Structure formats: C-alpha cells, structure tokens
Amino acid sequence: MAAPRSTHRRTPPSPRRAAPRRKAAHRGGASAAPATAPSSASAKLGGAPLPAALAARVARLAIRDAGHGFDPFGLNAAWVAWALVVFGPLYERYFRVLSHGAANIPASGPVILAANHSGTLPFDGLMLWLDVVRHSEPPRVPRAVADLFVPGLPFVGNAFSRWGVVGGSRGNVRDLLESGECLMIFPEGTVGIGKPFSQRYKLQQWRVGHAELAIRHGAVVVPVGIVGAEEQMPQLARLPVRAFGAPYLPIPATLFPLPVRYHIHYGEPIPIGRDYKAAQADDPAVVRQAANRVKAAVASLLRKGLAERKGIFT
Amino acid sequence: MRSVLVTGATTPIGEALVRRLLANKRVKSILAVAAEPKGRTAFRNAPSRLSYFPLDLTRQRNVRELLFGPARDLGVDAVVHTAQHRRATVDGPRVHALNVDAARELLMLCEEHPTIRRFVFRSYAEVYSVKAEVPVLIQEDHPLEMSPSAPQWIRDRVEADLTVCARMGLVPLHIVVLRAAECFACDVGSQLLDYLGSRVCFRPLGFDPMLNLISVDDLVKGLVRALATPAQGVFNLPGADTLPLSKAIELAGRRAIPAPGLLLKPLYALRARTIGTDFRYDVNRWRFHFSGVLDGRRARTELGYVPEHPIDWSRVPRM
C-alpha cells in the first residue's frame, strides 16, 4: 500500500522552532514533520493524509470512546484528523497563525479557554480549535461551546459534533467539565462575532457563564486573546432574518475573510476553581467578579498582541 | 428468598429475565405472566420453581385474582412489569389499555398487596425529549417528550412512566423505573431493527445523530440489578453501543441514502403499508436528527449496573 501523500508543504527551519516551548511563537506548520504518517496510522485516522507529527498527535488524543470510536457527543478522531487536513492550509497559509504561550494550557483536568470573539464568521473559533489541537501538550481537543441553535443546523451541526463542538446547554458543559475536558468558550457570544468594525478589540457584553462553570466544577480558566480576527471581515450591516436559528444575517464588506495574520495568545491560567468555593457559584456578585478577572486578562492579552504585531497582514 | 412476578414473560426480554432468575438459586419461585397460552410458550417444560399464567393484563379482575391468589400463596415480593405493546403501527384504546391502564392497575394492586414490596417498571429512553437545545447526555431529570403531536407510541410510554413515578414515596412499595435505551433485538419492538431491515436506509439529509442501544442481556442485567438492590427511583439504563446512525447502518451492512426529512415520513408510511413493517418515522423523527445518549452514572453507582454486552451486528436480520 502506498504511503499517503502529505498535503502540507515543508516549512523552512526556523530558529523559533528550536526555542523552549513556553517562549516560542508557534508558526502554523511548525509542528508538522516532513515525513508522512505510516499507512497503518493513516488507516486508524480514517485515511487522513497527515504529516507524521500531526498524525501522531491525533493518535495521542484522549477521546472518551463510547464503543465505536466516537465519544457520547459524537467526537471522532478521524474527523479531527480530516479537519486538520482540510483546514490546515487555512491555518498555515491563509491566516498564517502564530501561537503564543500554548504551554499555558494545562495537561489535564477541567479547563476553560475563554477568548474574545469576532469576525462575522467564526473563523476565530476554528483557528483556536486547530491551534489547541496542534500545540497543546499532551494534545487535547478543545470542546467549543456553541449557541443552542448550532447543533440543529444541517451538515454544520453534524460536522461540528464530530469535531467536539457541543450545544451550550448546562447538562453538556457539566458533563464535559466533570470528565476533565477542555472547553472553549467565547463569553461575548453572538454579540461579539457581530460587533461593528469600529468596536474591534473592544470586548462587548461579557457573559459570566464560564466563570460560574469554573467555580462550580473546579476548573481553571485560560484567557485567550485572538488578534487578527477582528479585522478579517468588516461588517456593513445585519439583516433581521432568522435562518436555521441564527439570530441575524450578516452583510460583510467582503465576500471572503481577508488574509489577516492571526496571533493567538494564551495567558497564564487563572485558578478560579481553586480561588472560590463551589457553593459561591450561586452568588452572582462573586461570579461577576471572577468573570471580570478573566475579561481583564483577555483585554490585557489583546493589548499586548496589538502592541507586538507589526501589521494586520504581516 | 425472593419470589418474583414477571409480566410480558414471553417476549425475548421477559423470557431471558425468567431464565436468569431461574439460574439464581436464591430466587425461590417465579411467576411468569403473558397473554399466550402455556402450550405456545417456552415454559411448557418448566421446572417447579416457575409457574406460568396466561393472563390479559387489561382485565383488572384477572390481575386481582392472580395477585391475591397464586402470587400471595407463593409469597411474591417483587414484580417486574415489562409488558408493553410492541408494534408502533398499532394505535387505539386497546393499546393504551395495555400500555398505561394495565400498569396503573397493577401498581395499585401491588400497593394493597400483603407480600409485594418492590415494583420494577421497565420504561423507555423514548420518553425523553430529544432536541437541539437540550443536553446530548440524558440524565434522569432530562425534559420528557410532552409534545401533543407525539405519536401514541411515545405518549403511552410517557404516561405510563409518569403514572408509576407519581406513586414514588407515597406508598410503602419500593418503586424502580428503569428507562432503558432502545433494545436492539428481534421481537422486542425495536424501531431501529425494523428500520435496518431494508437494504437501503433513508436517513435525514445533513444529520447523523448519536444513538445508544442496549442488548437483551444488558437490559436483563439491569432488571436483575434493580431486583437485587434496595435502591428506589428512576434510573437510566444505557447500552454498550453508542454510535452515529450512519455507523449503525454501516454495521448492519445496509446502504444509507440521505434524503430530505420531509420525504421520510411518507416514504416510511408507504413502506409500512406495502410491506407491513413497523418502523414509523414520526416516532423516530427527532432522534434521527439530534443526538440523545443516556447517562448511566446513577444506575452505575446505585444499582451497580455497567453495560457489558455489545450488540452482535452480524446477526441483524434482513427482511
């Protein structure tokens, strides 16, 4: 059987890649080794033609297999592998994602990644998901918590569930955190993704659910600042049209997202689960205070990221 | 030790339960009840510990005579009620009488009974609402399917379940309701098995939900655990197979054809009318769109139930 062909171009050697992990800014394809995965690994991963290093990462993913290679929510390693293949070029070549501080993601236990949300279309979620799968150690699949209408979307809802996305119902997130999974939450919600261009990098309404969950389930919160996405697709207007449960129809200035460069900054973990008692999850003032800590950390990462970047596209 | 009355004893589940109880020497006597005459059952040459009584559960007088006659004489202290109408394509008051009224009457008689102390009711995962906005992992406090447009097959099961639950804690009787995942076996009323009977299976375009299925062995294990432990309340009984609908179709060796959901109801109604199959798309509509997987943590901790018998997919019969 012929070895599967890699779709990834070799990335030139970079001094950054040799630097210690915590200090490194991981370039999109940095973790991809030149060799391709052995054929047996490809078969195990649904035949996805991944470079060996990425295939090895997927093979190391800890997925709660409920019996047929799927976890109870539908997450499947082969779908993750194919997502890395299909969206790899978007991550590596289009948005040219630079990852900063992925070592801040805890290796195990319940974690909530709380990030800013923007860009009209949720490419920021996709890039963050890819970045965590590619750079967390040991590799983890972040479970994106989506609005409740998302699982009801045909095709999209199905694909999302295979990649680990769950509807944001209390029962779903409770189970995931109790199982020690890594959640990915955008506290700004749809208000954030639909923010006008003039409001870019200004955090909109900051929901408190992530803080409440962290307190209740003893989770740590890793603040994430995503720089770049806020300029990818300036929004001209939104039509009050509800389709498949989506709250509005966006009218962007461009048909496709602009090839901005993404910088994903992971901050130091905030031990909210340790700093508060579980019973305090029922105290709105405490929950708001904890959420504000996260909001301040994300805002700080955004300021740092904006100060460090050289330009929107570079 | 314990003497047990089993209703629906001639179904594959009832039969397997009776055999499992017979294998347990600590069970003093078993009283098996079903609609069929004894000569047509597998209990023709039963050992002396097993007594079989043909009985129409919808006739209260007969049930009373059984409970306050042979059951009292045998010292029956536990009842396992598994009898429910299996065909989804049959509706009407007679079906409702068996599914709901018989359960209510049996429960009320058990409450008055001098020896019966435990009532185990086999309920169904289909009583739960499955929608995009509710959790995928279904715990016992999950919303129930209360839609007025739900087919009688579902409404009966919800009503029977709630009827039994409503008596919990009000009477000295220990009541256990086991909401089991769909039992994937012949002659137990499995909608999915009937659906997979065709070479080509149409499924809703754009959706591939997660399902959970239980084998007869695991379901019987759950019923036995419910008899053996003092726990009371509602328990989910998940099976060992959690998989997407497309995977189930693939494992059964069938071909899946995604089709718009609007076409599936008339298509399967036509199939039922022409071939006489039992699968109803309206019964399965939501779970063919959205994932719903039973969370068995409560049964694991309180009943000691862990599913361990996966489905043998090589034995899925074809029409």
Question: What does this protein look like?
Answer:
- The complex is a heterodimer of chains A (314) and B (319).
- Chain A is α/β, with parallel strands linked by helices.
- Chain A is 34% helix and 13% strand.
- Chain A has helices at residues 15-18, 39-44, 52-59, 77-94, 123-135, 156-162, 170-178, 189-193, 209-217, 272-275, 284-308; strands at 25-27, 98-100, 111-115, 143-146, 166-167, 182-185, 220-227, 235-239, 249-252, 263-266.
- Chain B is α/β, with parallel strands linked by helices and 319 residues long.
- A 7-stranded parallel sheet of chain B has the order 3-2-1-4-5-7-11, with helices on both faces.
- The A-B interface holds A 66-68, 70, 72-74, 148-152, 154-155, 157-158, 161, 166-167, 169-172, 175, 245 and B 131-137, 139, 142, 204-210, 212, 240-244, 247, 251, 289-291, 293, 295, 310.
Give the SSE layout:
The complex is a heterodimer of chains A (314) and B (319).
Chain A: H1 15-18, E1 25-27, H2 39-44, H3 52-59, H4 77-94, E2 98-100, E3 111-115, H5 123-135, E4 143-146, H6 156-162, E5 166-167, H7 170-178, E6 182-185, H8 189-193, H9 209-217, E7 220-227, E8 235-239, E9 249-252, E10 263-266, H10 272-275, H11 284-308
Helix pairs in contact in A: 3-4, 9-11
Chain B: E1 3-7, H1 12-23, E2 29-34, E3 50-54, H2 60-74, E4 78-81, H3 93-112, E5 118-124, E6 137-138, H4 152-165, E7 174-180, E8 182-183, H5 191-195, E9 200-204, E10 210-214, H6 216-228, E11 233-237, E12 241-244, H7 245-251, E13 255-259, H8 261-275, H9 281-284, E14 293-294, H10 297-303
Parallel strand pairs in B: 1-2, 1-4, 2-3, 4-5, 5-7, 6-14, 7-11, 8-10, 9-13
Antiparallel strand pairs in B: 10-12
Helix pairs in contact in B: 1-6, 2-3, 3-4
